[in-house]
Structure formats: C-alpha cells, structure tokens
Design brief:
Elements lengths: L19 H14 L2 E8 H4 L7 E4 L11 H14 L5 H10 L3 E4 L5 E2 L11 E7 L5 E5 L16 H24 L3 E2 H10 L9 H20 L5 H10 L5 H12 L11 E6 L4 E5 L7 E3 L3 E6 L8 E2 L7 H4 L14 H4 L3 H10 L4 E10 L5 E7 L1 H7 L4 E8 L4 E8 L2 H15 L3
Helix pairs in contact: 5-7, 5-8, 6-7, 7-8, 13-14
C-alpha cells in the first residue's frame, strides 16, 4: 500500500501490478554483478561517443552556459582556453554565449568528472568496460596534487603545463601499459583496497599502489624497450595517492549505469552536484535528474582558510557512494579523520546509518571492522524519505578563489528525493 506521504509500506505490489521491491532487487543484482575493467586511455574525442571538438563537459545536471557561476564557470573558460577554442578569456566567454563552444554534462556522455569535471576533446580519459553488461564508463586523468587545478576552478600557466604533461607524457605511458596487460579488472583491486584502509573516494593510497603493481610487468618491458617517459610516469604515480580515484569513478559509473531503466526501481543510479545545487538519478526513471539545493557539509579546512571561503563548483565523485564506496565505506578508512575531520566513532556511526537507507549489502566490497559485512549499497529513495537519513559522501572542499582548501563530508538534500518520489508516483500511477 501507499501512505499519504507517497511512501510504500507492506507488500510492494500496487494496483497496477508494479512490484517495486522486485524491481529494486533486479537493479541491485545488476549493480553488484557488474565487472568493470579498465581497457584503455585515449583522448576524449577518440573514445567517447558523440564527442566533438567544440564540446567542453562539466559536472552536474545539464544547465545553459548562463547558469554557471564562480569556479565552475572559470573552469569551463579554462577548458576552452586549454583546448585552443579561444585565444583569450573574452573570446571564450563570447564563444560559450554564441554556442560556438558547447557545454555538456559529463553523465550525458557516459562520463564522470571530479569537482568541476572538465573534459575537452584532447584530454585523455580512462575507458572502463563493464564486461557483464557491455556498457562503458569514462573518467579523465588526475592532474596531480597541486591544490590549484582546473577541476578546482583554476587556470593559469602552471595548470596549462600540467595538463599538457598529462596529455603528452603520463597518459600515453599508462594507456600503453594497460593495453599490454589486456586490461585490468578493477573490482578485485577496489575490494582489496577496502581491506587495506581505503574507502576509494577520499583515500586511494592502497588502491593506487595495487594498480601500479598490476601494470608493473608491462612497465618493466617498456623500460627495457626504451619507451620514453616510463620512469617519469611511474614516479608520478608513486607520489600521487589520489591517482586511482579516477579509475574508481569510472568503474562506479560503468557499474551504476547497469541499473538504468529497470522499470519501477526506486534505487539511486547517480548523485552529482554543480555550482547551483545537488541532483540524483533513479534507476526506474531513466536519465532524468531530480534537483535540490547545494549539499549540507561538514569539513576540515587547510591552514589559513575559513568557512566562508567554501564554494560549490561541481562534483561527480559521489558516483562512488552510489555503488557502496566512499562515505558508505568510511569505517574502512578511519585515518581520514586527520584529513577531513570528525572522529573514528563518528565515522563508524555514520557508516552504520547508511544501512538504513540502502537496498542491501555489497557481496564484493566489505568492511573488516564490521566483521566483513558488505558495504551498504544502492540508496532507496523510499527509505531516505521514511527515515530522514540523508546519504553521506566524502569530498574535497573548494575555495571561492579556486583551488582546494579542505576536505570533509556532505549530505544530499532531502528535496532531491522528494522530487524523485513524486515523479515515480506520477509515472507509475501509484497514488
């Protein structure tokens, strides 16, 4: 039956014969059966379907150019300048206003982007195949640990040079190593990293080391053959613990998309935000976004920064929480307390809360501290509204002048779930 608030209680089948619990079971089975493999690294224009040279992708639900503000707007301008779509800032703005330079949403192209999430045609992306279901997810490269990065709303000569270095030095070596290995299965690496202290969103130290080990045989052959830039690339990977996040994101996107279009399902298939607000997708409602205000946040700022500097400029790394990682595996990574604040006790309780709003426990991603219980996986819109427990996500915090100024946790706003529930009721005639 359906209560006055639109929430189901008791048996899930309604008057139309729709069985929401059965639909959710199917969506959950598809999600957890996903088998993501990274198989290549190529420029976006070569591998992302429909990508054109005049396109710049960014995070969050689609918006017209005029709606982008602050750091996300600056990142889009920086992307246009880097790609050579404009020679000056003024030309870039005019190009976006006229439509000569197009803005797109990452998720619309099977991609996900960290923070502002900027993709341009020449930027290399990881290609991750879900070998169970045949769909593909993409994520662009990590720029490095310098706080001033394009995805944090910064573009200057240093950012430009680091992006070129990724394009011309790092990505070709990593791509060649992956291809020589015949692709690398990511789910086993993620599962092991959870047992080694990562939650594979804000902490990727173990996962990055495990990935480096996987490509080592190919790397040794490449060194022996005199392939250029191999040593430099491996040193870069060795000192950048966040490198694996982009693989985790692409793997999560390829896994979560397997849930799309399961009729009647109320499970969340994507979470993302832009400079304007937060949004979710729901498996049974296709590619429609359900939007709300910016997320609720708690965090720890780097020295010299204050709370009033925090700004929102996008973010799609919560795709990891969508599949049971990140904030839904915080108890695996208690060392994050030093980075993003809080305490072990708070992190453990926060993680336990997530079991109240998810469909089930992940059979592959497990939490040692909880006696290897599976991570809480697949947020159910109905349970969020019934419990008033909001999904938690681990994130980096951006400053209004660009750059990373801290880290912390956010919670999705309730309004997204209310909008999704109303749309579900309308589509499936459940009232």
């Amino acid at each position: 039956m359906v209560t006055a608030s639109g929430l189901e209680t008791g048996p899930a089948a309604d008057a139309t014969g729709l069985d929401v619990d059965a639909a959710n079971a199917e969506a959950f089975a598809r999600l957890t059966a996903a088998d993501p493999w990274v198989v290549d690294v190529r420029p976006a224009r070569e591998v992302i379907p429909g990508y054109t040279d005049d396109l710049v992708l960014t995070s969050g639900a689609p918006m017209p150019w005029s709606e982008y503000v602050g750091g996300q707007r600056e990142a889009l301008i920086g992307g246009a300048l880097f790609e050579g779509l404009a020679a000056t800032r003024e030309e870039a703005i005019a190009g976006f206003e006229s439509g000569a330079i197009r803005v797109g949403a990452c998720h619309d192209y099977g991609a996900v982007g960290s923070l502002a999430g900027i993709y341009t045609a020449s930027m290399p992306v990881f290609v991750v195949e879900n070998r169970t279901h045949g769909n593909v997810g993409f994520c662009n490269f990590y720029e490095g640990k310098e706080p001033r990065r394009l995805n944090y709303g910064c573009y200057d000569e240093g950012v430009h040079e680091r992006l070129l270095h990724v394009n011309e030095v790092l990505a070709p070596v990593v791509g060649e190593a992956i291809r020589r290995q015949g692709g690398i299965a990511l789910k086993p690496l993620i599962a092991r990293a959870l047992r080694m202290g990562d939650e594979v969103h804000s902490r990727n130290a173990a996962a990055s080391v495990l990935f480096n080990r996987e490509i080592l045989p190919a790397v040794l052959d490449m060194i022996q053959e005199g392939v250029p830039h191999v040593r430099e690339t491996m040193l870069h990977l060795a000192e950048n613990d966040y490198f694996f996040l982009r693989l985790s994101m692409a793997a999560s996107k390829a896994s979560a998309d397997a849930m799309k279009d399961v009729a009647g399902s109320t499970l969340v298939s994507a979470m993302a935000f832009s400079c304007r607000g937060f949004a979710i997708k729901v498996a049974g409602l296709g590619d429609r976004w359900f939007e709300g205000p910016p997320p609720i946040h708690q965090g720890k700022l780097f020295a010299g920064h204050t709370e009033d500097e925090i700004t929102w400029m996008g973010g799609e790394s919560p795709i990891t929480e969508t599949v049971g990682l990140g904030g839904f595996a915080q108890a695996c990574a208690l060392s994050l307390q030093d980075y993003q604040g809080g305490s072990p006790e708070v992190m453990i309780e926060r993680n336990k809360e997530m079991y109240e709003i998810t469909h089930g426990e992940n059979p592959d991603y497990r939490i040692p501290l909880f006696s290897f219980r599976g991570t809480p996986t697949a947020v159910d819109v109905r349970k969020v509204l019934a419990t008033d427990i909001l999904p938690v996500m681990d994130v980096g915090l951006a400053g209004r002048d660009g750059g990373q100024i801290g880290a912390g946790v956010i919670r999705a706003p309730r309004a997204c779930f209310e909008a999704a529930q109303a749309a579900h009721a309308d589509r499936y005639d459940r009232d």
